[in-house]
């Protein structure tokens, strides 16, 4: 009986050690979770994106830049086979997001055919910002408007950030994405 207790305790301790090691390997930028848009599923940022190049964009359904969803989807389709991930994070910080996640999902999935990962609406600025955006701000800058873009390398470091006016097919953004893709090799 004592042997079984000892083995159970050993398993618990080993599990804790593995969890600590995994957290230590996960870049600060990717430590945390977000609720996935139109889903019961949560996005474990580390599990989903660690070791992969990533573009993070704060989005809004009723912004003049909302048509950039089409270009973001094209960017994702162009580079996804090379490992690129795109994460859209809707935010009402600039008062241009839909009132419900259902309406946000309709704009993203129906109107623009988005297939990359989208979270539910989050705060991306100030003290209420989710940890992901606090770390993005620490490594680069806080979003000044909707559709700010952050290119992150496979090690979880921001390699470039771009303002809303930078389109997803901008040569500078594409060059940053290609640098991020090269970082996983």
Automatic annotation (TrEMBL):
Residues 15-182 form the Thioredoxin domain. The active site is at 63. SUPFAM superfamilies: Thioredoxin-like. Pfam families: GSHPx. Residues 1-23 form the signal peptide. GO terms for biological process: cellular response to oxidative stress. The keyword Ion transport does not apply. It comes from the Bacteria. Keywords: Oxidoreductase, Peroxidase, Signal. One of its GO terms (molecular function) is peroxidase activity. Belongs to the glutathione peroxidase family. This is Glutathione peroxidase. The lineage of its organism: Bacteria, Pseudomonadati, Pseudomonadota, Gammaproteobacteria, Pseudomonadales.
């Amino acid at each position: 009986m004592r042997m079984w207790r000892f083995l159970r305790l050993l398993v618990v301790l080993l599990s804790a050690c593995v969890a600590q090691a995994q957290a230590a390997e996960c870049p600060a930028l990717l430590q945390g979770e977000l609720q996935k848009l139109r889903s019961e599923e949560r996005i474990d940022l580390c599990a989903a994106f660690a070791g992969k190049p990533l573009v993070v964009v704060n989005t809004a359904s009723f912004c003049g830049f909302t048509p950039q969803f089409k270009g973001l989807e094209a960017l994702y389709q162009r580079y996804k086979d090379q490992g690129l991930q795109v994460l859209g994070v809707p935010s009402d910080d600039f008062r241009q997001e839909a009132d419900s996640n259902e309406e946000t999902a309709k704009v993203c999935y129906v109107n623009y055919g988005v297939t990359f990962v989208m979270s539910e609406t989050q705060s991306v600025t100030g003290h209420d910002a989710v940890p992901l955006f606090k770390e993005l701000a620490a490594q680069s800058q806080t979003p000044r408007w909707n559709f700010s873009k952050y290119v992150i390398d496979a090690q979880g470091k921001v390699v470039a950030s771009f303002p809303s006016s930078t389109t997803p097919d901008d040569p500078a953004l594409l060059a940053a994405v290609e640098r991020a893709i090269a970082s996983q090799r």
